[in-house]
Structures are given as C-alpha cells and as structure tokens.
Amino acid sequence: MSDLPPPYTALTRHPMLARTKHDEAARFNFLTHLNRYLSGVLGPGNRLAYDTRVLPDFQARHGRDPEHRYEIRDAMNQDQFHRTWSALKRNSMEMRQHNGRQTVLRQIDELDALARQFNEHSGMLELDPTIRQPDYQTAVDIHCQPGGYHGEERPGDVSAGANYDVGIFATTGGALGGLNDGGGQAVVAWAKKVRPDWDPKRILDIGCTVGHNAVPIALAYPGAEVIAIDTAGASLRYGAARAAGMGAKNIRFVQANGEDLSRYPDNHFDWVQTTMFLHELSAQAMPRLLSECYRVLKPGGLILHVEQPQYSASMPLFEQFMRDWDAFNNNEPFWSAMHGQDLKDVMARSGFAKDSQFVVGVRAVVDRSIFPAAETEEQEDYGRAAVWNAYGAWKAAAQEMAA
Amino acid sequence: MTAKDAESVDWIARAGAKAKGRRPDYFEDPAIDRLLSLAMALTAEVSVLRERLDTVERLLEVKGGLNRADIESYMPDARAGEERGEATRGYIARVMRGFQQDVEAMANPDPPITFWVEKLSKE
Questions:
Q1: Full-prediction pTM beyond 0.90?
Q2: Closest residue in B to A4 (Cα–Cα)
Q3: Please, which residues bridge with residue A204 across strands?
Q4: Cα separations (Å) of A400 from A92, A353, A396?
Q5: How far away is chain B from the Cα of A161, in angstroms, using its nearest Cα?
Q6: Touching A: B residues 58-87, CB under 8 Å
Q7: What is the tens place of the pLDDT at every residue in B54-79?
C-alpha cells in the first residue's frame, strides 16, 4: 500500500461515533492531508530558516549560540517563514475543531439519547458532581478544543467527548488506527511481550478522557477490573457509552481527580497507567498525582506513563523548540515545563526507586493494511507522532522495600 | 418557549465557538491573520467540492443514476480511496506551491536576477 492516509470513512464506526455526512468526512480528509503536508513538506523549512538566517543573525547579535529553547523560539517567532507555518498549522487545528463541532452538535440530540441509553444499562459510568475541574484544565481550552474536555453545550451532554473522538483522525493522520486506540494497543502489545503470563486483576487508567487507550487494555485483560478516571464528566459520559457500544464490560468510568485517590486503599492496583496525560497537569499537580499512583500501586505492580520524549540534555535545542510548538500555539500550557523535567527524577521523588524504572519506545499498533505506519523521524509531526516513550517502573516488592 | 427549545443547541453558532486562551498574532497586521483563515477555509471547501464531484462521478458510473442518500453514505473502497487521496495530495501541492517553493529557495538560494543580468551582459 502507499503511504497515503486512508479516507476518513475507514474509521471503525462504533455505535457512539458521530455520523459524518459526505462533506464532513471530506473536510477531515482535507485536513488529514494538509497536516501531513505541513509537517512533511513545509516542516523542514523551519530548520532551513533557522540554519540559514535565524541562527546566524542570533550569533551576530549575541556573540554566542542560543542556550535555551526559549531563545530559539523568540528568534524564530520573528522569522517570516516560521510565523506563516505556525499560522497555517494553528488554522488547521481550529478547522478540525470547527468541523468536529459542526458534525457533533447538529446530531447532539441523538448522541445524548444514545449515550444515556448505554450508560443507564451498562452501569459503567460513575459521576461525582463534587469533583471540581482543576485550574490547569480550565485556564485555557486544551489543544484549542472549545470547552476543553469538560465543557457542555447543555447540562449532561456528550459534545466534548464526541468531538474529541470524531476528529482526532485528522490531527494524527490516521496513525492511531480505526478506533484511534493505537496508543493503548501499543501498551498492551508491550505488556504481553514482556510479561506474557501476567494476570493483573485491578488496573487504573488516570486521565482517560474518552477511554481510547483504556478500552484496549480492558479488552486484552478480560479477567481484570479496569477503572478509568478523569475529572471531566462530559468526556466520561461519552467514553463510558463508547466502551459499552464496543462491547467492553470490565471497565468503569469514574469521575475523580488523580491528585486525590483517597477513595482507593494503599497497594490496591496491579497496574496504574497514564497515556499522553501528564503534560496536561501542572508543576504542583504532577508530583502529587505521581505520589498517589505510588501509594495505590501494589508492590510488584506496574506503573506506565506514555508520553512524547522528554527534553534531555542530549536533545538538540532546535528539536526541543519544535516539540514545544503546541505549548505556545495549541493551548498546551504545561507541555513545555513538563517535557523539560527529568521524569525519572520526578518518579523517583514519588517513591519509584531509579533502579526499578525503565524507559521504552513504543509505536502505535494499528491495522497496517489500512492505516499508515507512524512517521519516520525525518517527517515527524512533533508532538503528534504516534511514536512515544513509555516511562515506567515495576514497584519494588514488599521484601525488597523492607530490605 | 418549551423546555425542549430551551435546551436546544444552535449548532451552527456554537460550533464556531472560540477556544478559551488568547490566540497568538502571527502577522503584524491582524487583517492578514483573518485573511489566511478565510483562504484556508475556502481551500478546504474546494477540496470538499472536488471530493463530492468524484463521488457523484463514481456513483453515476456504477449505477447510471443518483440519489442523495447514496452520496451521503458513500464509502470508497481501497482503490477509490487511494485515487481520491492522491488527488487531494496533488490539490494541496498546487494550492501550497508558494510556501513549498519558499522552502526550496531556502535550501538552494539564488542571487537576485539582476546579478545574472549584469554578469551575462559582460561575459
């Protein structure tokens, strides 16, 4: 097959997926191709602009090289090519939201009714109206999704989750597969490979949004009870209905904040998972949340955080700057600071001894007969590529901790 | 106003809601930011029209007739999907030519044409 993205209609139409009219699907097709063009064909122009004029100009002014990605950002933001490229990309993100919201909101009555039906029958949704949306979720609408993950167009609706699900194909170029679950599938493939006989009984997914990455875990471990939590009830309503529509039975969507897991006892879960989530917290929230992860995880259990690579000292500053684009242009305000931290140190401070930690590269697992392979490094759309680092640890067993 | 009306959503108006968070200014003149948004939306709509026409052509070719429900529910098979994808790729390459050639010019910079005019007038 060619490396062209598949048409939007190749997505698996699970019952809760908003139905697209011909032209709505065609708009997503255009945006999918546009995004690949912006990263693959025009993206290299950023490097060229930097090498041929921005860096020489910086060196002439300061008599030295840039020492931080923010210095590169300030200089690149004066460059006409980078500004134009950023403007094109920002518009593409906004157009994806607009098309997703038109698609979802015109059929919101049907989607809400269907979700209500699924959720009343499945018993897989547990909302808690006392859960407050954290400031880091409400300061701006994350990745330019109007209303964020938590917003409602009317009380109790599923518009936030439905829009998230219907359009993620366009921003990832189909690289997440038919159910947009290539990340969760990758985690499952990794776990099955390293621990083929592992039989986890209780699994916690924190910051699950609509459960893209939690449902594949539940389906792969039918003997486990999966708890998927998020602060955003609007996303959970959709996610629980989506999971029920897909036939998952061993997963519950619970409205809760990962910073306070006091509803769960110590040493309760065999596996605690976050997928592309830690960058949506804040500097104070992240260590609180990781400490709670440590507390509720059983000795011998697995913690796994799937993220884009952290900015290590060995990562060139220009690459750090490119990976930072979403923080400043796509409403991901903690992205920059989070990736600037050494996650291994942060996890160590939360209790996970460094010798119990590991980092492993994972790629989206999708049906390759239909969906494209994740980008190669050269054409990577930084921040959206379906290639991740998983930062994990097997919590030391009790006897090791006592020793 | 009935209870249902009170809860109904003006989907066209609400779909265009702005995301919370101040939008960066990409150009000195805000009119250029607005015009780029307009141009990109139109660019998308032309692509959508072209794809719809392709659907109509394919349905007519196979069925000899047409109804609108068939257009709305049309799903290209793998080969048609590939052909349409290729067409979209070509379309984007045409409308984005100026930006792409700007990248090429950075990779292989040329002197101004006056340089060659003067040089060739002497050599």
A1: yes
A2: B85
A3: A227, A272
A4: 51, 11, 6
A5: 14
A6: 71-76, 78, 81-82, 84-86
A7: 999 999 999 999 999 999 999 999 99
